Amino acid sequence: MSIQISDTDNKAVVFEKVRNEIEKYNFTIINEDQTRPWGGFFVIDEDQANEFIKTFFSHLKLDEVQITNKLSPKILVVAPERRLSWQYHFRRSEIWKVVKGPVGVKISDTDVEGELKTLHDQDFIKMEIGERHRLIGLDSWGVIAEIWQHTDQNNPSDEDDIVRLQDDFGR
Fold first, then answer.
1. Is 160 part of a structural domain of the chain?
2. pLDDT digits over 66-107, tens only?
3. Contact indicator for 93, 169 with CB cutoff of 8 Å
4. How many CB atoms lie within 10 A of CB 133?
5. Number of domains in the chain
């Protein structure tokens, strides 16, 4: 995936470019959210999770990714100089691959934020269940392919499975 985003592009233009690129790969977008103060995301049809993994995580085998029957693919779009909450989850692990960077990431096993790591195009990171993490937009828009690895087959993770330790937007 090769997305050409200019520093002068506004949020609507960035989302249109990302949407067009997702559609070139024939992925079905089942939800799009541009309302997040940090940017937003595209939710891809879970029936296409295997194809999503082949496209964005070709270095991984499906059995390395699949913990239960359910995988949820998403594309995250993070605005320049914006941060997602410092958070963790009880019912999912996450795998990220930078599609357009650079972006910043902080991770830690404790509630204390770790050091800022800069990830560039094609860089990959995995957060285990309970591992604290934060995605950070740096000087330009960032685009990340994400897989939610649901760890509880009977109670899959959702947006309510976010424990926010710190949030710039008071959520």
1. no
2. 665 688 999 999 999 999 999 999 989 999 999 999 999 999
3. no
4. 21
5. 1
Give the residue numbers spanning the domain of 65. 11-152
Phi-psi region of 7 (alpha: psi -120 to 50; beta: other; left: phi over 0): alpha
Which residue do the tokens 């977008």 mark? 29
Structure tokens at 132: 């604290």
Tokens describing residue 12: 């609507």
Six token digits for residue 54? 């082949």
User: Domain with 23 in it: what CATH number?
Assistant: 2.60.120.10
- Contacts of residue 24, defined as CB under 8 A and 6 or more positions apart, other chains included, come to none
Threshold 0.90, pTM exceeds? yes
Question: CA 7, CA 147: separation in Å to the nearest integer?
Answer: 27
Angle at 127 between CA 126 and CA 128, to 5 degrees: 115
- The C-alpha atoms of residue 66 and residue 28 are separated, in whole angstroms, by 20
Query: How many Å apart are CA 25 and CA 62, to the nearest integer?
Result: 19
| Cβ neighbours for 23, distance < 8 A, ≥ 6 positions apart | 29
